[in-house]
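User: For a benchmark we're assembling, each entry needs the component sequences followed by a predicted structure for the full assembly. Here are entry 17's components. Please fill in the structure.
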Amino acid sequence: METNFNDIQQLWQSQKASNFDIQGLISGLKKTEEKQRKERIAIAIITPSTLVFLFAVMPWGESKAILFSLLVIAAAMLWVGWLSFSSALKPSDDSESFSNKAYIETQLTKLKQRYKIAGTYMYFYAFLLAAAINVAYFVLLEPLSATIRISVHLGLTVMMFVVMHISVRRRIKKYDQTLKPIMEQLEKMLLELKG
Amino acid sequence: MKTQKEQDFEALYQSHKDKIYRLCLGFVREKDLANDLFQEILIKIWRNLESFKGESEISTWIYRIAYNAALTFTAKEKKKSEQQTEFPENLDLAEPENYSQEQEIRLQILYQAISELPELDRIIATLLLEGTAYKAIAEISGISENYVAVKVNRIKTSLTQKLNPQTHGN
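Assistant: Structure for entry 17:
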C-alpha cells in the first residue's frame, strides 16, 4: 500500500518527547542568570576602576599632555569594550527570534566583525595606546638624557606592537579553526535561503 | 512560589515540547545530540521569553528561535564532524520502545530522507510535517510564500518517493 503525505505526517507526529527535567532546567537557568548578573556588575566596575586608578596615580593636573594621554587611553578602552560587546554572540538578544534568513545574516555580520576587530581594530587600538603612553612618557621622562628617552620610547612602542601582533596572530589562528567553518556553513545556508 | 515567567515557560514547554523534539530529530539524529539541541532551544526560549511582544503567534516565535538554534547548532556540529559520516546508520529514535518494528523502519527511512535535504528544505519539511501553514513557514524562514510553495511541492514528492521505494523504484 502506498504511503501518502498524510500518512508521513501522522508517522512524524507519532513521535513524542521523552520526559525532561524542566524544573531542574529552570533552577539551573536561574542560578546561571544570577552568576551572569554578578559578572556583568564586575565588568561594569573593572573598566571605570582602571580609569579611576590611572587618573589617581598620574599627575594629569600638572600637564595637559598627560591629561590628553589619559583621555586617549580611556577612549580607546571604552571603544574596544564597545566593539567586543557589539560583536559578541550573546546568549539572548532579539536576533534569536528573527526569521531564519535575518538571523543568519545577523550572526554572519557579528562573526565577520570579530575577525575585523582582531585583524584591524586591535592594531589601531595598539597605536592609540602607544601614542598616548608615549605622550605621557615624553613629559614624565623630561629630566632624563635624550638617549635614555629615545630608547624608552622606541622600546615601549616596539614592545607594544610585537605583543599586540603575536596576540592578534594567535586570535586569528583560533578563529580560523573555530569561526571560519561556522561562517562557511552559515554562508552556504544563506545562499540557499536566497534561492 | 513560581514566578509568572516560570509559569509561562512551563505552559509553553507542555504545549510545544513534542514539536520541538521532532524538530531536533529532523536536524540531528543521534539521540544525545538531539537532547543537547532540545535543551539549547529550551534555554533560548527561557532567555528570550520576556522579549516576546506578541507581534506574531507564539508558536511562530518559538519556531523561529528553535530553528535558528538548530541552524547554528548544525553549523557547529558539521565543523566538529567534518571527517565523520554525518548521519550514522544505527539511529536512535525518540522512544523506540513505543513503536512497532515496521513503524520504526519507516521512521528511519523518513529521518534518512529528511537528513538528505539541504538545511532550508529541512526546515520547510519539518514544519510541513507539523501541518504548519505556508504563511507561517514563510514568516519563520524569511522566504516568500511563493518560494515556500515551490519548495513544498519538491519536498512532498521527494519524501513520498523515499517512503514508497517499491512504487518509485528507489
